[in-house]
Amino acid sequence: MMKRGGRIALQLAPEENAQNAAEMRLMIEGAIALYEAEGMLLFRRALTEEQRAQAAALNTLENALYTLKDRICELQDAYMKGRLTE
């Protein structure tokens, strides 16, 4: 374990990193599915009831979920490319 900038960084074996990335991707995809099922209904309701602040907050949450998913996918792709070139 290393401490960097007030954070603790775990040094994991490559296989553990791959497993963690796969688990993170499954979790974020589940969170997105839940948001799409429930959050979008709340978003539409907030828009129709002119609750702009709530709609904006839900939109921000949606953007954060998709950005996190994209980043996890990039990490997985980079890991796989690195493993293939070894």
Strand elements, count:
2
- Specify the oligomeric state: single chain
Helix content: over 70%
Mean residue pLDDT: 81
Indicate the topology.
Layout: E1 2-4, E2 7-9, H1 14-48, H2 52-85
Antiparallel strand pairs: 1-2
Helix pairs in contact: 1-2
Comma- or semicolon-separated keywords:
mainly alpha, two-stranded antiparallel sheet, elongated
Compose a concise summary of this entry:
With 86 residues, the chain is mainly alpha-helical. It has helices at 14-48, 52-85; strands spanning 2-4, 7-9. The protein has a two-stranded antiparallel sheet with strand order 1-2.
Structural commentary:
By secondary structure, the chain is mainly alpha-helical. Helix content is 80%, strand content 7%. A two-stranded antiparallel ribbon has the order 1-2. β1 and β2 (7-9) form a beta hairpin. The longest helix is centred in the middle third of the chain and has 35 residues, at 14-48. The radius of gyration is 18 Å and the shape is elongated. The protein starts with a strand and ends with a helix.
